[in-house]
Design goal:
GTP-binding; Small_GTPase_Ras-type; Small_GTPase; binds guanosine-5'-triphosphate; six-stranded mixed β-sheet; alpha/beta; Rossmann fold; 191 residues; 6 strands
Length: 191
Amino acid sequence: MSSSGSLKRKVVVMGSPNVGKTSLTQQWIAPPTYNESYFPTIEATSHKIINFEGVEYDCEVIDSAGQDEYTLFPSKYAVGVHGYLLVYSINSRQSFEMIQTVHDKILDFAGVEKVPCVVVGQKVDLSGSERRVTFAEGEALAKKLHASFIESSAKDNKNVGKAFEVLLREMQKEYNPAPEKKKSSWWGWGK
Ligand SMILES: Nc1nc2c(ncn2[C@@H]2O[C@H](COP(=O)(O)OP(=O)(O)OP(=O)(O)O)[C@@H](O)[C@H]2O)c(=O)[nH]1
């Protein structure tokens, strides 16, 4: 816990180039922010303090440079990281297939079997004819990876906050679960 009483959470946003990682991050950090132009990111770190389900979180969000299967995995994307947004774009099969690759690399590098993550299908504002990945496929992949799933649009600011909140909940389950509520028993009604 930080000196101010908030819980520090370090999050990395990963996925193929051009899927909307920066747009999603910026829309959450400083809404309303959306840019039609595409400027490839080298790497950017942002901060946000958020109160979620009664807990104050001091979030550090690393917006990574787009990955492909050959990208080396930097140690700073694993060391001290609490959770990941794994982002693809619903109009790109290739970006969808990259999610498994990136996830494998995270587990490999961190030497763990499971890590809090949310699979995010971005650009859900695009028309149906542009869609190349169905909702069900996204959901099935997330299930396989023991992750949560959400579709979002940074452009329309749809499910952007929710994507980060779902990740906060995943991290909460892993690192700061709520104490189990005391069950009342027949000899102690209401206790
Ligand atoms: N239609 C639509 N376009 C989007 C959305 N989010 C981002 N874009 C566009 O997609 C392009 C890439 O967006 P970025 O946010 O830079 O993507 P990125 O994944 O950070 O890209 P890299 O820096 O290369 O990794 C830009 O032209 C954005 O305007 C969205 O929700 N809907």
